[in-house]
Amino acid sequence: MLFLQGMRKLFTHIEQLHGIETSIASQKSGKEMNAVESLEKAWLLVEQGKIASWGSMQTPMPGADEEINLQGLEVLPGLVDSHTHTVFAEPRSGEWEMRLKGISYEAIAEAGGGILNSAAKLRSMDEELLYEQSLWRVQRMLEHGTTTLEIKSGYGLDTASELKMLRIARRIGNAVSATVKTTFLGAHAVPPEFKGNREAYVQHIISEMLPAVCEAGLADHMDVFCDRGFFTPEETLQLLEAGAEYGLPAKIHANELGITGGVQAAVKAGAWSADHLEHLGEAEIDCLRNSAVMPVGLPGTSYFLGIPYADGRRIIDAGLPFALASDFNPGSSPVCNLQMVWSLGCSQIKLLPSEGFNAITINAARSLRLENSTGSIAVGKQADFWTTETRNALQSVPYFFGINHAESVYIGGDKI
Ligand SMILES: [Zn+2]
């Protein structure tokens, strides 16, 4: 192992090395989002799992312990999926059929479907089986070029089951070489035991679930579904303040179902990101300006539910940063492929291909405050990248949608 740690690996004959950064930006906003630096006919040096340097094949190459000839493939930085619900018990394809017959997502949720359906299945599922199925899904994500991801709880909705979900997310983080961050989302919905008494459930989260999760060290962030029919902005702030006392940074599900104050709550809570944003007024855009909240769009959800898309075009044109994530979950966004999310960002939100690329790399990393370790090809960052045979990848990957363009995926310079 000692030998491996000091190892220098030189990747040569890269047709295009995309997403290089010479001056490191913590995020890209407004017009900067359309800029991606690439180098043609390049080599890339990895040392101790980190990016050490790169250069043109026409310049002298450094010595290395191992040389890997990439034979004309293009290289892109590892993708970052900052919002997923990957630990779930069962697909909700039956509900999907109901929606195809014209029943709304909200009506299905009111009838005990939706998140509560997922919670019932998850509570009764054996932990080992749940782990194995969730791990399998994460492996599919990695095959598509994702090298950093976040996983939320929120299908447990009682202390034991929320702990079960987060334990599984942590175990997955230990089992794969990708970086896995976890988020406590006890406030995803009100469970049946607290039906009609949301206030008591909020208190239950604060006094019981949150302390248990934090004492076990299972969460890196806290999230609340702040929306119509779920939690109010006041409850959201109360919950996130309690999380902050345990040192948990905030993330928020905001404005999926309407203009409901979620963005304002995110700014007030100093959240790292406000995710969804399918409904957005001028007041929300103004509020996001002068804040460090990353706006995150989840176009897989809009595609699958047939609801409006987060207007990332407007957000970027207002000079703000914008990130994209999969929202991978069994009810509203069964997509684990960020290349597809990139494509939806372009075709549906009218992001330019480079803007979409920055939205699933550096800005997504920023929404997890991991911009110093991943999200671009920069000296000192983790050597997380993927190769593709696809020519002109920055345009062609989102253009040829629905296929996996990744030939190989490397994490810390090692092929997975
Ligand atoms: Zn979500």
Bound compounds, each kind once, are: zinc ion
Give the count of helical stretches.
16
Distance between the termini: 17 Å
Q: Residue-averaged pLDDT, rounded?
A: 95
Query: Compute the gyration radius: what is it?
Result: 21 Å
Explain how this protein is built.
The protein contains 16 helices and 16 strands. The protein starts with a helix and ends with a strand. Helix 6 (159-175) packs parallel to helix 7 (198-215). The chain is α/β, with parallel strands linked by helices and 416 residues long. Strand 8, helix 7 (198-215) and strand 9 form a beta-alpha-beta unit. The protein folds into 2 domains: 2-78 and 376-415, Urease, subunit C, domain 1 (Roll), CATH 2.30.40.10; 80-367, Metal-dependent hydrolases (TIM Barrel, Alpha-Beta Barrel). The chain is globular, with a radius of gyration of 21 Å. The strands form 2 sheets. Strands 1, 2, 3, 4, 5, 14, 15 and 16 form an 8-stranded mixed β-sheet that branches. It binds zinc ion. Residues 83, 85, 253, 327 line the site of zinc ion.
Q: Which short descriptors sum up this protein?
A:
416 residues, alpha/beta, Urease, subunit C, domain 1, TIM Barrel, 8-stranded mixed β-sheet, 8-stranded parallel β-sheet, 16 strands, globular, binds zinc ion
